[in-house]
Amino acid sequence: MRQPTASPRPTDPVSEPAAPPIGPCAGGADAPAPRGLVLDTNIVLDLLVFDDPAAVPLRAALARGEWRWLATAPMRDELARVLAYPKIAARLAFRGLAAPAVLSAFDAQSQPVPVPPKAPVTCKDADDQKFIDLAVHHRATLLSKDAAVLCMKKRLQALAVWTSTAISSIA
Question: Which of 47, 49, 56, 93: CA 20 to 30 A from 87?
Answer without folding.
Answer: 56
